[in-house]
Amino acid sequence: MSKADAVIIGSGPNGVVAAAALADAGWDVVVVEAQPAPGGAVKSAELVPGYTSDLFSAFYPLSTVSPAFRALDLESHGLRWTRAPSALGHARSAADEDAPVIHPEHADTAADLERRQAGDGDAWSALVDLWHDIKEPFLNTLFSPFPPVRGPARLLRQLGTADALRLTRFLLLPARRMAHELFRGEAARLLLLGNAMHADIPSDAPGSGVMGFLLAMLAQDGGYPVPVGGAGELSAAMVRRAESSGVQFYCGDAVTGIEVRSGRAVGVRTASGIHHTAGRAVVADVSAPALYGSLLPADAVPARIRADMEHFEWDTPVVKINYALSHKIPWRSASLCDAGTVHLGADSDGLVHWMADLTTGTIPTTPFLLFGQMTTADPSRSPKGTESAWAYTHLPRGLTDDTSADLLASRVDHVLEAHAPGFSDLMVGRVVQRPSDLEAADANLVSGAVGGGTAQLHQQLIFRPGPGTSRSETPIRGLYLASASAHPGGGVHGVSGLNAARAAIGEHGPRGWVRRRTSSAVTGLLSKGSIP
Fold first, then answer.
1. Residues 450, 58: contact at Cβ < 8 Å?
2. SS3 (DSSP) at 383
3. What is the pLDDT of residue 180?
4. Measuring CA to CA, how many Å separate 260 from each of 93, 167, 469?
5. How far apart are the C-alpha atoms of 521 and 516, rounded to whole Å?
6. Contact 505, 34 (CB under 8 A)
7. Helices (H), 395-465
8. What is the radius of gyration, based on Cα positions, of the chain?
9. Which of 15, 96, 169, 444 might form a disulfide with 10, Cβ 3.0–4.6 angstroms?
């Protein structure tokens, strides 16, 4: 048995951020991790000798603006960032020889878009100006525990009521509608739409626009950074930072249950039989369905929340293909050669058809895919003149078998060959990560879902992970949800972990009784729900 003030379940970014924040506040903290090494879905390895592959996440635009990562000062613990010459590009078709890209300087991006369609360069510049005007309060709103107060209040003071309402409407637009309101040409529209498809929200659904706007502006503002040496270097720096504050890590031993006494979480037990006692808090960097469905005693979970978890919707399963290439990629469009991230396989109408396939349970014949040129972004990833790369795309929900994944992976190969004739001849290694592989490597990636649950509006904000449970606090005192299943959701930003840590610290502060009374009241209301 070990004893600590706080026990953290899981060592992904959210778990390590929570551990460091609690340790910085003077708490004794232990982290218990099922896998042999910490890191969650932020890891890298040599799948092919000499080629470093990121096994899950790869580019980290949210990390550079996250208050959680800024507070850690990871650069002082060995982390180094680097970027590709251009953040991203989007080929409009396999025949596109002049694909639009986001250049490092927004004036260059605007000039390129203006060349393609009169007025679109000015529209891009206006969008960048809007971003700089609202960036800080907007990000504060995005990352604050729900409901946010300071960010919206600042936006209201800064913009006034009328323009604040216009901004709200703009951010709620479906990405397709947003792109058509902003731009006249397909090139500019795709720079927005392709970014929107990094989440699982259909381009014609509310909420997809804000994702496209956010990622496009982050790409323009600072590029899509990657850690020098691979994604694992980000996790390694986070672990060093946490250990420097006294955090202890126990790896290779899965938590099998959370112990609850008199309505309070008091510790965890593991597969090996070890009990870790928590004097103040248990922080769970696990999926909400796992927390409420298997880790907690059944009688500790209100029936209404248990029922809500039956409606929890996962994001669409991912298939990821890692490539080791003997030479740089022979793109039809030379503009893609310097882009770290490349969007392929669909124009604006094609994105609608692709999403329709996923919605109707059809494996796409020509899948839209994200493609990462990792050596272009970080020369340390493979020998000079070669490329370590990956592609990922999605299967329909409920279709996660290995045969379907292999079929989709072969179709990804065909898309790449069409956009870069001779691509297949460059392969010296190819490793497919199927949904089953992803879940085996990280239990939070259920059926290959990498976002911690759908990002669609019905499971965001006050509805994440279920109605009325959007804060880190849970109905069990001393237990906090810190994973991507909690607000603000998926992405490597660590904010869910930071929010959970702050909630735990707050409960033991002078106003902790207010938090406890509020949590109890909310739990009571939820347990009385009758709507199915």
1. no
2. coil
3. 98
4. 56, 45, 19
5. 9
6. no
7. 402-419, 435-441
8. 23
9. 15
Q: Tokens representing 182? A: 């902003």
In the three-class reduction of DSSP (H, G, I as helix; E, B as strand; rest coil), residue 290 is classed as helix
| Residues whose CB falls within 8 Å of the CB of residue 501, separated by 6 or more in sequence, listed in order | 17, 18, 19, 21, 22, 25, 283, 480, 482
Write 255-262 long-range contacts (CB < 8 A, 24+).
255/9, 255/32, 255/34, 255/286, 255/295, 256/295, 257/295, 257/296, 257/297, 258/9, 258/282, 258/284, 258/291, 258/295, 258/296, 258/297, 258/476, 258/479, 260/296, 260/297, 260/300, 260/476, 260/479
Contact 60, 313 (CB under 8 A): no
The per-residue pLDDT for range 22-43, each reduced to its tens digit, is 999 999 999 999 999 999 999 9
The token pair that represents 70 in the structure block: 């800024």
Whole-number Å distance between alpha carbons of 281 and 192: 41
Residues contacting residue 285 through CB under 8 Å, at least 6 positions apart? 8, 9, 10, 11, 12, 14, 15, 18, 40, 444, 482, 483, 496, 497
Q: DSSP class of residue 294?
A: I
Alpha-carbon distance of 179 to 165, in angstroms, equals 19
- Per-residue pLDDT, 511: 59
Give the DSSP H/E element, type plus range, for residue 178. helix 175-182
Tokens of 407: 């079929």
**Given this model, what pLDDT does residue 148 score?**
83
Q: Could you give the angle at the alpha carbon of 10 between the alpha carbons of 8 and 13, nearest 5°?
A: 100
Single pTM value for the model: 0.94
169: number of CA atoms within 13 Å, CB side? 8
Q: What is the pLDDT of residues 220-268, one digit of tens each?
A: 999 999 999 999 999 999 999 999 999 999 999 999 999 999 999 999 9
pLDDT of residue 509: 74
Tell me the three-class secondary structure of 211-247, residue by residue: HHHHHHHHHHHHCCCEECCCHHHHHHHHHHHHHHCCC
Cis peptide before 147 (omega within 30 of 0): yes
DSSP string spanning 346-362? --HHHHHHHHHHHHTT-
Question: What pLDDT shows up at residue 510?
Answer: 61
DSSP letter for 293, please: I
Question: What is the dihedral sign for C-alpha 55, 235, 216, 219?
Answer: negative
Residue 353 burial by Cβ neighbours in a 10 Å radius (0-12, 13-18, 19+): middle
- Which residues, in sequence order, are bridge partners of residue 8? 31, 283
Task: Decide: 83 and 228 in contact? Cβ < 8 Å.
Answer: no
Ranges of residues in the chain whose predicted pLDDT is under 50: 527
What pLDDT does residue 508 have? 87
- The predicted pLDDT at position 461 comes to 87
- Residue 147: the pLDDT is 80
Spatial distance between the Cα atoms of 113 and 100, rounded to a whole number of angstroms: 8
